[in-house]
Each structure stands twice: as C-alpha cells, then as structure tokens.
Amino acid sequence: MSFITLKDGKIEIKAMDEETLFGGEDFNNRMVNHFVKEFTRKHKMNNSLHSRVLMRMRNECERAKRTLSYESKVAIEIDYTFQGKIRLK
C-alpha cells in the first residue's frame, strides 16, 4: 500500500507499507462505511440502508477505487429510489 501525492505533474511517495492483511476488499469496506456514515449524517437517516442501496454503494466504491488508479478525482452517484440520486465525495 502506498500513500502518494500528485502535484504539478510530479508524484511524491509519502509512505509505503507492505500490510499483508489489508487488501482491496478491506479498502472497499472502509469506503462503504465512510459513505454510509456521510449519507446518514447528511440526509438525517438511520444507519439501516436498504441492502440494494448498500450493494450499489459497494459497487460504486469498487468502481471509484479502480478509477482512482488513473484519475485524481472521482464522483460516486447512487440512484436512491426514494429521493433520487445521491452524490458522495
């Protein structure tokens, strides 16, 4: 795992670690947990989101993670049936 910054077209490695117990699925889970907290805080809802919404969120987090391997920013949008699309950053 690496923590890098990209500024003025230059990549700077800030930290590196070979954490063998932390993989892609762990990263996805942390992203999903972060966005669930953000969503429930922003929309003042309880923490129990419908399983389909969680599945969509997990899929979008996976897509975002892959996109971030070659882009510096990515938007996550999930179609939430009751209130239209939600946008997470």
TrEMBL record:
Pfam family, one: HSP70
Keywords, alphabetical: ATP-binding, Hydrolase, Nucleotide-binding
Superkingdom in the source lineage: Eukaryota
Any one GO MF annotation of this record: ATP binding
Enzyme class: hydrolase
Annotated EC: 3.6.4.10
UniProt xrefs under Gene3D superfamilies: 3.30.420.40, Actin, Chain A, domain 4 (3.90.640.10)
PANTHER family: HEAT SHOCK PROTEIN 70KDA
Family: Belongs to the heat shock protein 70 family.
The protein's name in its UniProt record: Putative non-chaperonin molecular chaperone ATPase
Gene source species: Medicago truncatula
